[in-house]
Please model this.
Amino acid sequence: MAKVTERKLVSFDWAVKKLLRSKANFEVLEGFLSELLFDDIKILEVLESESNKESDDDKYNRVDIKVKNAKGEILIIEIQANNEWNFFHRVLYATSKTICEHLDEGDDYSKVVKVISINILYFDLGEGDDYIYKGKTQFRSFHDSEELLKLTKTQMEKFNMVYPGDIYPEYYIIKVNNFNNVAKSPLDEWIYLFKNSAIKSNFKAKGIKKAGKVLDKLNMSKEERQAYDDYIDTKRYNKGVFETALDEKMKKLEEKLQEKDSQLQEKDSQLQEKDNKLQQLAKMLLANGFSKEQIFKQTGIKL
Model:
């Protein structure tokens, strides 16, 4: 049996922004999308829009692509590798904007394109142990949760869909940090690549071999290698800045807590001193003939 080896590659979050937009490299994303969507996906083009800005200060790496599936349906797929925290609101805005950008003025609303948003997350999001989540819109009966609203037969024929929710965007969330590095399926091999920037010699997922070539730093041009090194340096710098700012914030918070604790201790000491004085007063009143009931009314001390 041949020994299984591992080859290190450049990070996918950089590649999706710089390398995988090239038509020559479409096979990589076609392979990943086919495995994720259980379909035969062919990329028609990378879409040029405001959402596809390529600049050094981009907050996230994203590519919008027009694809055709095995049924011949045209879809728009957003792929983004995220390190942001305001995820849910931002991804909703992004899909809505994509729909608007690709509906020409004067077009009928039936021309609204189906959008699939695929999000590869390099941070912990929400509470859940799985590493892949899917979300879509469904219209359920108010009184019978098992009943889903369907399109009319005419609408089904016109839109080639069954449910109204099929028209709405779909969302895939891939939480790479939750993946246990055990690749049990072709899709898992892609998740392994996303998490580890590496592939194993026995991986067989569609497009994964091409990814091994495209994302190999040795196969990149001098300019691409320099751009990647600059990206990694910037990422490390930003991480250092973030960690430093976080340390400073935690230090200030700790100082405030210590100050608060000191104030509470001082207050507790003052209350204890006041209680001791009341105890002494109660004993003195008792020695001078006051009843215990009278002392309790005056001092609140029970003897």
